[in-house]
Amino acid sequence: MEGYGLFLGLLGSAVALGFLSVVFALVWALHYREGLAWDGDAAEFNWHPVLVLTGFVFVQGIAIIVYRLPWTWKCSKLLMKLIHAGLNTIALILAIISLVAVFDFHNAKKIPNMYSLHSWIGLTAVILYALQLVLGFAVFLLPFAPLSLRATIMPIHVYSGLLIFGTVIATALMGITEKLIFALKSPAYSSSPEEALFVNTLGVLIVVFGAVVLWMATRPHWKRPAEHNPKLLQQNGGNEEESTMTDYNNADKTDVEFNSEAAARKRNAKLDEAGQRSTM
Amino acid sequence: MEGYGLFLGLLGSAVALGFLSVVFALVWALHYREGLAWDGDAAEFNWHPVLVLTGFVFVQGIAIIVYRLPWTWKCSKLLMKLIHAGLNTIALILAIISLVAVFDFHNAKKIPNMYSLHSWIGLTAVILYALQLVLGFAVFLLPFAPLSLRATIMPIHVYSGLLIFGTVIATALMGITEKLIFALKSPAYSSSPEEALFVNTLGVLIVVFGAVVLWMATRPHWKRPAEHNPKLLQQNGGNEEESTMTDYNNADKTDVEFNSEAAARKRNAKLDEAGQRSTM
């Protein structure tokens, strides 16, 4: 693997940043706020940031880069798909419980639901994430989708996965902003008490976590390699990844034969499409 | 151009969404708030969202996709770099003026500066954006940087450009959240007055604008095509784009000669790197 040392350093940073974010969320709830409980009061609300940061930020981030881990490249693609889908399912379940906590708290306190930009974008992100999971399961895990459909859906799946991940982080930043303004009254947020500095730092941590995950997920040379023998792949039944790889080999031959600019561009486009594979 | 109709539709949507966001920011300032002035009062603060949305969101978004416009592909790369750098410079100037407005307002009103997560991440984004502009100018516009340096910096430049753009949108969402909580007291934000619904809608508009720009910027088949004749390029002096293209052609020959998996992977990585070109 090219740049293995850098990859390991970034992976270590991502895991450390994600883990630290969860620790910060727990310290915020348990030390600065009212703790954690399921009582319709503030301690129930506090499950919201803890579960969002654990599932919807940390676990989702790891699910995105799980194909990149070079020691998993010997595992079957099916196993890796199951791990990717499994991690995303855990993230979705934690996100849904975190929503129940906040709706329950609002209802108990007679606070309106769904009035803030945070809630509008956050709920949309959860719904799109669930759709992405169902669609990913149907197209890439179940054996029914034709290869052409998989190849068409793959770049959309990768793009929407990364977009939802970024949107979730943006939504978390809005949530932190809201909560600090509402919770800090004397001293106010604007007088920068210790809790404000601590939770602002949490916000910075998740932005850096997101940046590291997005860098790792978009480096082409860190992708899980595809097998290179079309005959072997046909024997194995193939999948959408191998399909793009076969196109690539065919396009190669075409280029050598004709060496035209149009053929080169066509191959370039196909290669780039193939480059989109392997995040699910 | 592959998918020209879709490209035109998305370009039209991006321009419409960006323009509508600026209109929404103006209506917010002029109709719902205190208008626009430079008087140390709320009307001075209002320049902050108007200028951020105009420059740091709309103009920056257009600067990101300007290389994709197929009718510019006949223009020289130098001209397109100047337009890209020029648009980003305009965006930076507007962002800096928007910061002056908010610091000036805070100082006049004895409100502390730089206490919120919005301010921490927003100021960091402006500083990184300025560094990105200076570095981009030095490496890609001035004629001194060796081609190998340009090829090394290009993927970092593209990644940080898109990351800063996404971070700016996240910061705008935090800013909207802050301002609505502070400004709406009776009726409060939580009772969803008309202004709250209007400005939440503005938040949704900029997220969709960002999503469209990021889709357009990351589609490999919508990239500005590179010239394909290494001899011609050498005569013209070449640049980082042509350099990666030359590597690509050389790598091609190597592959045909050896046809090894290692060579194929190396070429794949180089091609993918080359695929990162042309966003500056």
UniProtKB/TrEMBL annotation, chains A, B:
Subcellular locations according to the entry: Apical cell membrane
Record bears the keyword Iron-sulfur: no
Membrane-spanning intervals of the chain: 7-30, 50-70, 82-103, 123-144, 156-176, 196-217
UniProt subunit comment: Homodimer.
PROSITE patterns referenced in this protein's UniProt entry, alphabetically: CYTOCHROME_B561
Name recorded for this polypeptide: Plasma membrane ascorbate-dependent reductase CYBRD1
Principal location: membrane
Enzymatic reactions: monodehydro-L-ascorbate radical(out) + L-ascorbate(in) = monodehydro-L-ascorbate radical(in) + L-ascorbate(out); Cu(2+)(out) + L-ascorbate(in) = Cu(+)(out) + monodehydro-L-ascorbate radical(in) + H(+); Fe(3+)(out) + L-ascorbate(in) = monodehydro-L-ascorbate radical(in) + Fe(2+)(out) + H(+)
Pfam families the record matches: Cytochrom_B561
Provenance organism: Phrynosoma platyrhinos
EC category: translocase
Record flagged with keyword Transport: yes
Membrane topology of this protein: Multi-pass membrane protein
Ranges of biased composition (kind: Basic and acidic residues): 269-280
